[in-house]
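Support request from a user on the community tier.

User writes: "When I paste my structure tokens into the form, the page sometimes reloads and wipes my input. The last time it worked, I copied everything first. Here is what I submitted, just in case something in the input itself triggers the reload:"
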């Protein structure tokens, strides 16, 4: 897939992976629109990269989604929708049996799953009018095996992974030209994972892997350790589960 001269909308593009993706897409000659909830962050990003178009929008808010769609339409539309925005609510108590569990799960599902569906539904007709268009949904290795201390986040990404496959096959059946990519990153060094001591890759390396997968039109794009984890999970699922939930996690849950 050719990325130069494309117009790309990146949700959650004011920091982390989204911002790095915006930078690399700009370097390739793409026109990039980024969204985020924090206007201050968006203003900072705009100063760093004046060629970016920054729009404040919360993917969990249906009204914001419609306003974003109308604004993008005024700007001439997009060729690629990159659903990058996601939230992980740290558990107030470890495990899933606590009073705030349902509230956290609802928020994660609203952003990580329902928000993606909402934007895809809004932009699909626009994308179908383009010659070479795509949707990128970001799932996780936690959609393949769950984390015990991030159970609801894992569940939201699993829902998104199944939806992504279904959307891709549905569009193929009806003859749509819109390509559906699933991005499966490993643990990436971002603000979301700053408290984790596990092995991480940089956002720069992650986005390079994404761009390589898009160019080769790999429907499922696994980057870094996500490739090895997929093999381990396929043939040795108990080992894969153990990699995500080591003994130190078990001890934390007991305490």
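"...and here is what came back when it finally went through:"
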């Amino acid at each position: 897939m050719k990325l130069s001269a494309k117009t790309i909308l990146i949700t959650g593009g004011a920091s982390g992976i989204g911002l790095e993706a915006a930078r690399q897409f700009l370097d390739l000659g793409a026109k990039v629109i980024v969204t985020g909830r924090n206007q201050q962050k968006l203003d900072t990003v705009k100063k760093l990269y004046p060629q970016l178009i920054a729009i404040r929008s919360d993917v969990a808010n249906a009204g914001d989604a419609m306003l974003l769609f109308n604004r993008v339409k005024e700007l001439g539309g997009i060729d690629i929708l990159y659903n990058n925005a996601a939230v992980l609510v740290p558990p107030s108590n470890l495990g899933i049996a606590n009073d705030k569990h349902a509230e956290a799960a609802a928020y994660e599902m609203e952003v990580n799953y329902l928000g993606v569906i909402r934007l895809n539904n809004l932009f699909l007709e626009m994308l179908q009018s383009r010659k070479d268009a795509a949707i990128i949904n970001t799932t996780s290795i936690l959609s393949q095996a769950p984390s015990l201390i991030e159970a609801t986040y894992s569940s939201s990404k699993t829902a998104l992974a199944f939806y992504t496959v279904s959307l891709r096959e549905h569009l193929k059946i009806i003859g749509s030209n819109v390509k559906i990519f699933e991005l499966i990153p490993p643990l990436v060094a971002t603000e979301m994972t700053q408290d984790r001591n596990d092995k991480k890759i940089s956002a720069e390396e992650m986005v390079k892997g994404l761009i390589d997968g898009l160019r080769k039109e790999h429907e499922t794009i696994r980057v870094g350790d996500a490739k090895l984890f997929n093999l381990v999970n396929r043939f040795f699922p108990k080992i894969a589960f153990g990699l995500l939930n080591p003994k130190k996690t078990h001890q934390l849950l007991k305490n």
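Agent notes: The reload is a front-end session timeout and is unrelated to the input. The chain has one domain: 7-254. The mean pLDDT is 91. Escalated to web team.
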